[in-house]
Amino acid sequence: MRAVILRERNMRLLLAGQAFNMFGSTMMIIVLAIWMKDLTGSTGAAGLIFLLLAIAVLLSPLTGLLVDRVPRRWLLVANDGTMGLLILLLLTVDDVAEVWLVYVVTFLYGCSGQIYRAARGGLLHSMLPDDSLGDANGVLSSLGQGMRVIGPVVGAALYTTRGIEAIVIVDAVTFVLSAVSLTLLRQPQDLTSPNAAGDRGSFAAQVAAGARHVAGNPIIRRLVLASAIAFCGAGMINVALFSLVSEGLQRPTATIGFLGGIQGAGSVLAGLLVGSAMRRYGEYTVACVGFLLNGVGLAASSTATLVGVAIGAALVGLGLPLILVAQVTLVQRRTPADLQGRAIMASEAIINTPYAVAIGAGTIVIGVFGYRAIYLAVAATFTLVGLALLPVRARTRPRRPVEAQVSAVGPRP
């Protein structure tokens, strides 16, 4: 199925553009945190980078409505172009007094990511049949996680040798290349005109339509809530990671880039397998495996040994795409075209809002309980969520051909 997707010219162009976009983002985000740690000497200042990226989710209802109102390809082009210009503002930051500008650009970077994910998800839904969505999402996940192997390493090397200026310029160029690839698509299927079924009532009702859809569909709701519970605690890992490296491993902050590479390598493998796994076992089963892998991986990382942390990073890398791809594919498959943006954004908001709160809480909790307690608590949460979802995994198991035939003709007398 992946080969069929890659034979399509539009999909090859889309993937090429996304590779540039993802490379720039994975490089920039980790370097922003390292830069803030070096510039201010504060772990909290570094953690605030992740918080600002996450709280952009608060604008997701409006973002979702925008994605369902504008042709998604051209929205992606405008989004890339705008962010490519805004990121250049970081070149004006020279000292601690101008850190506020870094935080403003970081927040806008997070908003850009919200638009990017929702518009891309809606565009894929328009371009591909339902049974190809899992493979496309898996390939994109594998590609994105592959960039996690390359991006942090290149970013750390460039930052160390050339400074933040080189990172900013390279990231701006990747936005331009992403925009160019999107303009070269040949008449892709895209949003044409909104369906009135999703756009009745007041402006507020239209904004909330995605949340109503997610809440009203029990299959989507169950997985989204499970993810929200698991990732709530995971927000604190972004803060605890710095202490794990500096206090537990007693290594420089740039080691985070190395660990990100290991995690990305595991995610590349998971992204290549997740599409076929969902076709065979269904989204719930795949997500369950992902939750459990995260639980084991975070527990291994809590040992604060280089081997344990490396194994933990690899297991988390394997587990995260299974959860995230299963969740977004489930939403895409069970949501009408004109509601894709709002449904994707609503599901992300439900998951990412407690995640963002947890990042803020982590800056306080880390000073009281330390990194090991955070890792163990979050590991337990992922494990319990995975076990709780196991009994209902058959709800999304695809019917086998024989089962579908029996269902169609009825049981034999």
Kindly describe this structure.
It is a single chain. The chain has 413 residues and is an all-alpha fold. The protein has one domain: Growth Hormone, Chain: A (Up-down Bundle), CATH 1.20.1250. It has 18 helices and no strands. The protein is globular, with a radius of gyration of 21 Å. The protein starts with a helix and ends with a helix. The model is unreliable at 402-413 (pLDDT under 50).
Q: How would you summarize what this structure contains?
A:
By secondary structure, the protein is mainly alpha-helical. It has helices at 2-7, 9-40, 43-55, 60-67, 72-86, 99-127, 130-162, 164-183, 203-207, 209-216, 218-234, 237-248, 255-281, 283-301, 306-333, 340-369, 371-389, 401-409.
Strand content: under 5%
Computed over alpha carbons, the radius of gyration is 21 Å
**SSE succession:** HHHHHHHHHHHHHHHHHH
Q: On the 0-100 scale, what is the average pLDDT?
A: 83
Q: Report the principal-axis shape.
A: globular
The overall strand count is: 0
What's the CATH H-level homologous superfamily?
A: MFS general substrate transporter like domains
Number of helices: 18
Biggest beta sheet summary: none
* CATH fold name: Growth Hormone, Chain: A
Count the domains.
1
Ranges where pLDDT stays below 50 over 5 or more residues in a row are 402-413
Distance between the termini: 38 Å
Q: What's the architecture in CATH terms?
A: Up-down Bundle
Helix content: over 70%
**CATH classification class:** Mainly Alpha
SSE class: mainly alpha
